[in-house]
């Protein structure tokens, strides 16, 4: 498991989170999983970039390594991150 | 390339988590293998009955799938128990609040048993659990 994962409990008692294999929500009911983002290499720029899967907007395109891009992406789309509202349709705070 | 996972409504799979949740919300007495009374006055056997917060109690009964169903006279709890935690909520809102707290305890208990550190952030509106492991 990654070092840290954050879950949000909804008002109806459900759960939403950035997927992590260590947390098996299927034990509690039927889950839905959708892609949040893409992490790809830009051959022209020589940098890794993070793109929203929903809006296709490139969020950042200046990562030297894939690992750093993945770390940034996880923080961005986790509960409390700037991209959380994009995934949940709720408030980002 | 991350994925977003959503569980619309969590089943109740832990009676212990339910007990912790209802205690947190104001029910003070827990009985196992007891009875409760539904809206029509019918006596129902239940695995867990939580009372002590007014005339009306809330119960848990195992269903055929090995999970639990919540049983209560929700109207009675809403209109007669006068519980601070349920103020302003309708019947569904009361059920959701109990489910929400039960889900919280289910996750925290499960992952603490597996060696994770579980930190709960609850401002009354947003409820988040941060799990971490060295």
Features:
heterodimer, A: about 90 residues, alpha+beta, three-stranded antiparallel sheet, two-stranded antiparallel sheet, 2 helices, 6 strands, B: about 130 residues, four-stranded antiparallel sheet, 7 strands, about 30% helix
List strands and helices in order, with pairings.
The complex is a heterodimer of chains A (93) and B (134).
Chain A: E1 4-9, E2 15-18, E3 31-35, E4 37-42, E5 47-52, E6 58-63, H1 66-77, H2 84-88
Antiparallel strand pairs in A: 1-2, 4-5, 5-6
Chain B: E1 3-7, H1 15-24, E2 29-37, E3 43-51, E4 58-62, E5 68-72, H2 74-80, H3 91-113, E6 117-122, E7 127-132
Antiparallel strand pairs in B: 2-3, 3-4, 4-5, 6-7
Structure notes:
The complex is a heterodimer of chains A (93) and B (134). With 93 residues, chain A is an alpha+beta fold. In chain A, 18% of the residues lie in helices and 35% in strands. Chain A has 2 helices and 6 strands; from the N terminus they run E-E-E-E-E-E-H-H. Chain A has helices at residues 66-77, 84-88, and strands spanning 4-9, 15-18, 31-35, 37-42, 47-52, 58-63. In chain A, the strands form 2 sheets. Chain A has a 3-stranded antiparallel β-sheet with strand order 4-5-6, with helices on one face. The longest helix of chain A has 12 residues, at 66-77. Chain A is elongated, with a radius of gyration of 14 Å. In chain A, 33% of the residues are buried. With 134 residues, chain B is α+β, with helices and mostly antiparallel strands. Chain B is 30% helix and 34% strand. Chain B has helices spanning 15-24, 74-80, 91-113, and strands at 3-7, 29-37, 43-51, 58-62, 68-72, 117-122, 127-132. In chain B, the strands form 2 sheets. Chain B has a 4-stranded antiparallel β-sheet with strand order 2-3-4-5. The longest helix of chain B is centred in the C-terminal third of the chain and has 23 residues, at 91-113. The two termini of chain B are 24 Å apart. The relative contact order of chain B is 0.17. The model of chain B has no long low-confidence stretch (mean pLDDT 92). Chains A and B meet through strand 1, strand 2, strand 3, strand 4 and helix 1 of A and strand 1, helix 3 and strand 7 of B.
